[in-house]
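Annotated sample (chain length 458).
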Amino acid sequence: MTRSVQALAYARPSAMESSQVGASLGLETAGGLTPRGAEAHPRFFAGFLSAPRIAARGLLAVADVAAARYYQRTLASSLDPVVTGNGDRLRFESFSGCCGVYARLDVLQEGLEGERTGHGTTNVDVNNPLRDALSRITADDPLHLRVGPEELAVTTVDGPLVEKKVPLPDRWLRGFAEAQVASAGFDLRAELSAAQAVAFLRSLPRRSGNAARGAQWVVASGSALRPTTRPVPGAVCLPGPERLVALERVLRHAMALRVYGPPVVDGAPVASAWEVVLPGMRLTLTLSPDASRGFSGEGGVLEALATDEAAADAELVSVLLAWEPTIEPASLAEQSGLSVERVRAALTRLGTAGRVGYDLADAAYFHRELPYDADRAERHNPRLVAARELAGAGAVSLDGAVASVASGERRYQVRESEGRLTCTCQWWADYRGKRGPCKHALAVTMVRRGATVAGGVR
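Output written by the structure step:
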């Protein structure tokens, strides 16, 4: 597995401090991007939290996911949560070490009392002493929140930096992108009241050790959720229910539970999202289709990466992004002169670089810039790399709706039917498109669309 080391540098550790005027939570930031360009320690907010006890527990839940491996648990280092300022809210995101759970806490405008929220994305330091301090908040006494350095220290930060060096696997980056792509295909399937949400989540199994294979299904029944033995229409997949454990941090404060998932097609396990509605906030966990398999292998972004047209469209659309809390494809289409379909493909491609996320409650993309190497998810995607090699080597022969792809000592047939490509390879036989296209279908797509690949245009 390809990996590098991500170095995070903070001006000082994040900390909770008390004084005569009350408590103050200072969250320190590392390097990130803002409308002014790259900054070593951007500042996004200074003001009060309307519900500090709930916000503290939500932030701890996000940190729990960052530090967790829900499958094949080992001692693992974790990446600090990512924070994005979108002008009217703060978003705290994390991704589990096993690449199967995505978490996000949205602190909305009504949850913040203070100066206007800034714009940009960076990492935020969540250390063990801070976790202990957050866990001790038991009342909603006034709590001042600062995200970024003290105002006088924005341009000059004295003293040594606090450095963290954490392994950053490529599959972690790809998974972060795939989680957003999966979410964009979800619909709201059920909404439970606070009492029903608590009862349902507390009824889920709590296994220890590795998560068991296999997925459970639930379906809305009146105003509740009930298990179902088969994936009936409207059902939601619950793969590895023990992976929802982080939601327990905020259960006592829940106002509702919203459950999202894609349409049930053939009964195969699919991803799902579980959103707890809180006063002025939302906490969402998105689960991969299998507890033993992370989002990085789902392949939902591959077709959007396969052509030069998508690359050019993404470059154009990226210029029009302005850290909006919600991105409207129709508006971007009007500004760019592209069709809405091409804008959506461009947004998918931007998602692979961590430049957009997806908010289920708003049913819209939002702008953020993950503070990691933006090209690595595409550069090291094994199916995409293999497809480009096949296309560049002239291994693809086209004959109407049928294409032949020479790979190794074998030749595979790729057919197009009703806009869908099928292949005679083992990958297609095993997954039948459920984990994205195989390398042969990707190579055919590249050649048909005239993509520039190694060795020229074929």
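Annotation: Residues 30 and 327 are 26 Å apart (CA to CA).
Annotation: The chain is about 25% helix and 30% strand.
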